[in-house]
Design brief:
Length: 306
């Protein structure tokens, strides 16, 4: 199923057992809840999915099992985040072989490429796969900025279609729309700026806390899309203390604790990450518990026409 780059795309967590194996039953249960809640696609193996710790065989299982269960309902994307361009090409081609519907593509890892090198990396992958591509632009975390001028070159490749906008600069949404119109789809990649970017014209939201709160996330998107801003803002304000868990180095552990608390995930992470303990766990659990105690009643958001 071709991604349309509209709506909510969870950067899904990878579920593990206590023995550090893939927990496919729990993983597929979470995906089922996501789909039932109205998400518009799934991104496998992102930073939140602990991409750097996954083996190639595990990525294959995740892609194929997600497609088997849900490929007729939503597009399934695989993240590609590699240190070398040749390996990024190989991973993209494997994703295509496995049946993935698209890619989220990061700049080179562990090396701060300049503009020419970044363009070479992205365009080399695009030339070697037919899959549609979402470029992940996150200069805050990855120190490489994919500027509007660079997208002039990137959009010459028809399968480069969208950007995960994570610059933390809301004005960049307007800048990109002014320059490219609808030729570049914009998906907010920062949970704490999502409603602001959607109001300013972003087409979608690559979300993190959606892994634990899919209904609230999709509801906000659909209310904004319908122009029901006040209703969306009330839910967004409730959501904000939870959304702030997404902008921390331990976002994986924090969001997995959320998933466990609401019954659609577990806290198990893969080393070097460790599950939360002590004061830190108590502090994050308190944030979650306070939000759950006043969790809002949602309108019938699934009936809102898209």
């Amino acid at each position: 199923m071709q991604p349309q780059w509209n709506g909510v795309y969870p950067a899904i967590t990878t579920k593990f057992t206590a023995g550090d194996q893939l927990d496919m039953d729990l993983y597929l249960h979470n995906i089922d809840v996501q789909v039932s809640s109205g998400v518009d696609g799934i991104i496998i193996g992102g930073s939140l999915g602990e991409a750097s710790t996954l083996t190639e065989a595990e990525k294959e299982v995740l892609v194929k099992e997600t497609l088997k269960g849900f490929g007729s309902k939503i597009p399934v994307l695989l993240n590609v985040a590699e240190g070398s361009t040749s390996e990024a090409i190989r991973q993209a081609q494997l994703a295509e072989k496995w049946g993935a519907d698209g890619l989220m593509l990061l700049p080179p890892m562990r090396y701060k490429s300049d503009d020419r090198e970044t363009l070479f990396h992205f365009t080399s992958v695009a030339k070697n796969t037919s899959l549609p591509i979402l470029i992940y632009n996150n200069p805050v975390d990855y120190k490489i900025d994919c500027t509007p001028e660079m997208f002039d070159t990137l959009l010459q490749h028809k399968n480069i279609q969208a950007v995960k906008e994570s610059t933390r600069d809301i004005t960049n949404v307007t800048r990109l729309i002014n320059r490219f119109g609808n030729d570049l789809k914009i998906l907010c990649g920062v949970d704490t700026l999502a409603m602001e970017e959607l109001v300013m014209g972003a087409h979608g939201w690559v979300a993190g806390l959606v892994c634990a709160f899919p209904a609230e996330t999709v509801c906000i998107y659909r209310l904004v899309n319908a122009g029901r801003i006040a209703e969306a803002a009330a839910i967004y304000r409730w959501f904000m203390p939870l959304l702030e868990l997404d902008i921390h180095a331990k976002l994986v552990q924090y969001i997995k604790l959320c998933e466990a608390k609401v019954g659609i995930g577990s806290e198990y992470v893969r080393a070097p990450r460790l599950t939360l303990v002590g004061e830190e766990r108590q502090r994050i659990e308190s944030v979650i518990d306070k939000a759950l105690a006043v969790r809002p009643t949602l309108p019938d958001y699934l009936s809102i026409a898209l």
